[in-house]
């Protein structure tokens, strides 16, 4: 399904109007997790509200699943999945590697999506007819890098600390095989796979709204996104994104032990 690029831009602008004025300001941060730290800000909540209003006005018969304001009509064939600020920890730390994620699933398959980073003025989106970039340097079509060997690969994960027990050993084994490993950057790392800058991202414990928007951006740039066992990633879970089938197989094998 094609999604109008201008609608993607409208979503990005509406979210930015709520997030950017609050970025690098000392706004209130609430904690959603009693036994740890899962921050949510006013910017998260207001950006999602703005995105939902646009979708409801444009596509009143579509469902919505959002991180901050729950679900509506998610039994419908078309469902929009929203993470208003993916990387809230980066946001509250003043680092411009967070992004607004909005994806569209049709009968459970992610077919279109956007990642917007308004501070850097970048928009990554897939509209069903390819994966695209707009921002500094001018618009271009996105394409993954053709890296096939782990020894030549750049890999990202949010933090190795998310891998527990035996899985941490397997992650460390995978990291030892790649050329360069870097941490952090949440959705930005996945966007960089589509842009041909990063070769692999492995992240355990994702929610649907963390990944749905990014799946079509990577796939329509030529890459692969699955769970660690090779299944579809639309429902979240332990997710691997890779630029080529060869890298995907090698990373899956390392993580399987």
For this entry, give a set of tags:
single chain; 257 residues; alpha+beta; Fructose-1,6-Bisphosphatase, Chain A, domain 1; D-Maltodextrin-Binding Protein, domain 2; 2 domains; 8-stranded mixed β-sheet; 5-stranded mixed β-sheet; 8 helices; 31% helix; 29% strand; globular; Inositol_monoP_metal-BS; magnesium; histidinol-phosphatase activity; hydrolase; metal ion binding
Q: Report, as a whole number of angstroms, the end-to-end distance.
A: 38 Å
The helix-and-strand class reads alpha+beta
How many helices? The count is: 8
Largest sheet: 8 strands, mixed
Any idea what the CATH architecture of the largest domain is?
2-Layer Sandwich
Q: Shape from CA axes?
A: globular
Give the helix proportion (percent range): 25-40%
Order of helices and strands: HEEHEEEHEEEEEEHEHEHHEEH
Number of separate structural domains: 2
Number of strands: 15
Assembly state (oligomeric): single chain
Share of residues in strands: 25-35%
- Placed side by side, the strands forming the largest sheet appear as 4-3-5-6-7-8-9-10
On the 0 to 100 scale, the average pLDDT is 94
